[in-house]
Structures are given as structure tokens and as C-alpha cells.
Amino acid sequence: MDDLRVGKLYLSGSDRLIMKPTPLEIVFRYRSQDCASGVTRSTTQRLAKALGVGETQVIHLALRELAAKVLPQYEADQGPLTPAQCRQIKKTAPKARDGTIRSSLLDAEGA
Asked: Taking the model in full, what pTM does it have?
């Protein structure tokens, strides 16, 4: 028997209904027990109840938090300043008056 498609559901040759994800969806499988790399559905349900949101929103919140921790939150720059750039900044920056410099963004040795 050929596969029969009804919406997102397919009836496979073995008479099993299976759901195939669209390009904007993924298949998500819960772990059988909570571990460092995943959680059980029970944990997700408890989180949803505690946060007052649905299970899907719990997953989105967790992924957003992970993205904020792992991915850069700004565009990469061109790396450290060159000695010439440091000299130019020191030359054009206003000079301190009647005070001492406690710290500097520019390394004294780099200029």
C-alpha cells in the first residue's frame, strides 16, 4: 500500500499514522528521564504550569534563554585596535585635568 497523505498526517504502508513536519517544524522527542541533555514531558508540563504558559511556549523560552547565553548578542568587530589606532585615540581624546587616571581602556604598552 502506498503512503496516503491527509494534511500533515500520513498513513504508512504498515497502517501507522505518522506526522511529518513541515519545513518550519521539527520533531521533538522527550527523554525517558531528566538528564543534562533533555527533560521528560512531565518536567515540561510542570514548568508550563509554574509559568502559566503552554508546553510549546516553555520550549521556546528555554531555547531563547540558551541562545542568549551561547550566541553572541552583537555583530563581531574587526578585532583588537592596532597600535596606530591607539595612538590616534590618545592624540584626539580630551586630556585629564587635575586628576589621576585610575584605569584606561587603552593598554599603555599598545601605544
From this structure: 0.53
Q: What residues have CB less than 8 Å from 31, skipping those under 6 apart?
A: 37, 38, 39, 40
CA Rg value for the chain: 28
Provide the mean pLDDT of the chain: 81
Write the pLDDT tens digit of every residue in 29-61. 999 999 999 999 999 999 999 999 999 999 999
Indicate left, alpha or beta for 3 from its phi (over 0: left) and psi (-120 to 50: alpha): beta
CA 99 vs CA 89, 95, 96: distances in Å: 19, 10, 6
d(CA 75, CA 40): 36
d(CA 107, CA 98): 22
Ordered by start, the domain boundaries in the chain are 4-70
